[in-house]
Structures are given as C-alpha cells and as structure tokens.
Amino acid sequence: MAELPERDAALLLDMLLAARDARSFVENLDEAGFLASRLHQNAAFRSVEVIGEAAGKVSAATSAAHPEIPWREITGMRHRLIHGYGEVRLDLGWMVLRERLGPLIAVLEAHRSRRERGRSMMNAERLLNYYEIIADAPDAIAPCAASFPTCPCAANSCRRTQATNRRRSC
C-alpha cells in the first residue's frame, strides 16, 4: 500500500477523532433520550458534519484507494445536515450514530495502525542504515571535539554544552 500524502492522513485522522466524539456524545443514551436532547443531537451531528467535511477534502487518489470507506454516503450525510437541516430525520441520524460509526471507526483505526507500523518500519530501517554508516566510517561521523564551536555562554558550564561534550568525546 502506497504512503498517503500527509494532508490526506491528517484528514483521515480528523474523521476518526470526530467519529469517536460523535459516538461518545451518545454512548450513554437510548434513542428516546437522544430524541429528547437537542444538546446531544447538535453535538453528535456537528461531529458528523466534520467527518463529512474532511471526507470531502480527501484526494481522489486516496478515496479510490480506499473503497471500504463509504465516501459518497459520508459527504451526502454532511450535505443533508448542513443544507437540509430542517428536514433531518432524527431516527435516521440515531441509526447512523449507533450502527454506522462503529464500522467507520474500525476502518479508520486499522488504517492509522497500518500507517504507524509502516512509519515505525521506515524509522527502524533509517536507524539501521545510520548505524551501518557509523560502523563503516567512525572517523567521519565522530570528528574531534576541537572542531566544534564553543558554548555561546562562554562559561562552558551550561546544560547545552555539557550534553554536547558528552556526545562528542573522542
């Protein structure tokens, strides 16, 4: 799987966080409690709007690469909440909050987990390459301390200089 552009990765994270928020706003409610509480309706639907807004900004390449995410339905729900606010059916909104957000959260979390595993592998490879370079040419990596500039405080006693001196001992 190709690496996502940073912007798309950030948008998917926005979607995940907003989906978690929406679920948390209604987790201790039953349908009757939700229908009676404009506070919970507005909070949860605002999060659904954020999910839809972020989904609409994801690049076409990323949305095509992830057909498991219902992009059209998500952005359509956002448009309905924003533009058709007077015609929103609360029972359908409740169904989305209780039945559709869980699977979306699972997909987004799985994607995030894969991305973080990939990033960890890249960092491990870079670190391994760095250590191989050091092993091959220790003199090129650790030059004599005399070539480093002196401490800006001129006392050579600040924490910065002490830490630097520990790193550059020959």
Notes on the protein architecture:
The protein is mainly alpha-helical. It has two domains: 6-132; 142-170, no CATH class. The protein has helices at residues 6-26, 31-36, 38-57, 60-65, 71-83, 90-136, 138-141, 159-167. α1 (6-26) packs antiparallel against α3 (38-57), α1 packs across α6 and α3 (38-57) packs across α5 (71-83). The longest helix is centred in the middle third of the chain and has 47 residues, at 90-136. It is elongated.
Describe this protein with a few key phrases.
170 residues; mainly alpha; 2 domains; 8 helices; 74% helix; elongated
Outline the secondary-structure elements:
Elements: H1 6-26, H2 31-36, H3 38-57, H4 60-65, H5 71-83, H6 90-136, H7 138-141, H8 159-167
Helix pairs in contact: 1-3, 1-6, 3-5
The percent of residues in helical segments reads over 70%
SSE order = HHHHHHHH
Structural shape: elongated
Beta strand %: under 5%
Radius of gyration: 26 Å
The total beta strand count reads: 0
Number of structural domains: 2
Catalogue the unreliable spans.
141-151
The largest sheet, given as strand count, sense and whether it forms a barrel, is: none
**In terms of structural class, how would the helical and strand content be classed?**
mainly alpha
Indicate the mean pLDDT.
Answer: 81
Short description:
This protein has 170 residues and is mostly helical. The protein has eight helices and no strands.
